[in-house]
Amino acid sequence: MSSAPSPVSELDHDLPPTPESPSDPAADLLTLSETSDGFEAPEGAEGSSDPDAAGKPQVARWFAVQVASSCEKKVKATLEQRAVTLGVDNRILEIEIPQTPGVKLKKDGSRQSIEEKVFPGYVLVRMILDEDTMMAVRSTPNVINFVGQEERRATGKARGHIRPRPLSSQEVNRIFKRSAEKKPVVKVDLAEGDQILVTAGPFKDFQGEVIDVSGERSKLKALLSIFGRETPVELEFSQISKQS
Questions:
Q1: Residues in a beta bridge with 113
Q2: Can you tell me the distance from the alpha carbon of 206 to that of 223, in angstroms, rounded to the nearest whole number?
Q3: Domain 25-185 is in which class?
Q4: Which residues does 98 contact at the CB level (< 8 Å), separation at least 6?
Q5: Sign of CA dihedral 169, 36, 16, 69
Q6: Contact assessment for residue 184 and residue 101, using Cβ atoms and an 8 Å cutoff
Q7: What residue ranges in the chain does DSSP mark as E strands?
Q8: What is the largest CA-CA distance in the chain?
Q9: What's the rounded Cα separation, in Å, for the pair 10 and 68?
Q10: What is the pTM of this model?
Q11: What is the three-class DSSP state of 53?
Q12: CA–CA separation, 6 vs 157, rounded Å?
């Protein structure tokens, strides 16, 4: 299965409410269109299988699947193996974890290249939806459910069945484009209130307290004691080290 970009739609009603903060990747999933015309396979990729019973060609579409926290890679690897074992690898065609490049700043000031998940807790699957492929996905360890629409039961208070909803081509393209174009994010093991030592620049050997961290700018603000007064100073991540 080839590696490609990534997507998602409205959330499973069985799941806990998702924060609506624009900075929360899960909240972005709530904005996905309810109109799902599906996403046909990109040029050069197999996008359909044998015709169904009615003689209509079956088209592979992208679906979002919610998984247990931090289990995205494990689910991807397991589902790829299960698809082959269960004989549905001709219908489960791609499994993607939307990611963007990132940089992690270590305590010693060195940098490590990392991949940041665009939608933590979700895996995207391009597949031909039928009973066999649905069962293969749902029964994979650490899979919670498809993102889709709940079909309410006619009677009783029990939760209904979740009907998987394919992503629209517009949303798929938007998510993949976002994943490909997003600027690297710098992650640093620093937070407001942490004590730091300045290791370079005009304030070398000064100690201070972090009051603000800007990962996108690779900078932070710290209060340094200068001439007996606490003064806010902006510093590069590369100019400081965290004190235990």
A1: 103
A2: 10
A3: alpha beta
A4: 5, 6, 7, 117, 118, 119, 122, 124, 175, 176, 178, 179
A5: negative
A6: yes
A7: 61-67, 92-96, 99-105, 111-117, 122-127, 143-146, 148-151, 161-164, 185-188, 195-198, 207-214, 219-226, 229-236, 240-242
A8: 83
A9: 17
A10: 0.57
A11: coil
A12: 35
Residue 91 amino acid letter: R
The two beta strands, 143-146 and 122-127, are: unpaired
Give the residues across from 102 on adjacent strands.
114, 185
Cβ atoms of 20 and 27 closer than 8 Å: yes
240 DSSP β-pair partners: 198
Give me 15's structure tokens. Answer: 């799941």
Q: Is the dihedral of CA 97, 9, 27, 213 positive or negative?
A: positive
Tokens of 158: 């029990």
Residue 5 to residues 123, 145, 176, 183, 212, Cα–Cα distance (Å): 11, 21, 5, 15, 33
* Lookup: tokens for 8: 């998602």
For 190-242, CATH number? 2.30.30.30
Residue 30 pLDDT class (50, 70, 90 cuts): very low
Q: CA-CA distance, 13 to 30, in Å (whole number)? A: 12
Q: Which residue has the tokens 């919610």?
A: 66
Outline where 110-168 has alpha helix (H): 131-138
> What DSSP string describes 2-16?
--------SPPTTSP
Residue with tokens 């589902």: 79
User: Token pair for residue 117?
Assistant: 């998940």
Q: What pLDDT was estimated at residue 60?
A: 93
Mean pLDDT on 29-41: 40
Predicted confidence (pLDDT) per residue in 92-136, tens digit: 999 999 887 776 666 555 667 777 788 889 999 999 999 999 999
CB 89 within 8 A of CB 83: yes
Write down the domain spans for the chain. 25-185, 190-242
User: What is the C-alpha to C-alpha distance for residues 16 and 6, in angstroms, rounded to an integer?
Assistant: 23
